[in-house]
User: Fold this.
Amino acid sequence: MKITKVKVWLVEGVKYNWTLLKVYTDTGNTVLMDGGRSALMQDPV
Assistant:
């Protein structure tokens, strides 16, 4: 599995700021992260 693309969003909140990260792989998996938590999910075909 290789990383093919990375997107980053910096979101300004009222109390906290958020850094969101989305990593795409060559196998079709997408990893979503926010502040250290992550969840692996399959992109819809």
In short: The beta strands are 3-12, 17-25, 29-34, 37-42. The mean pLDDT is 80.
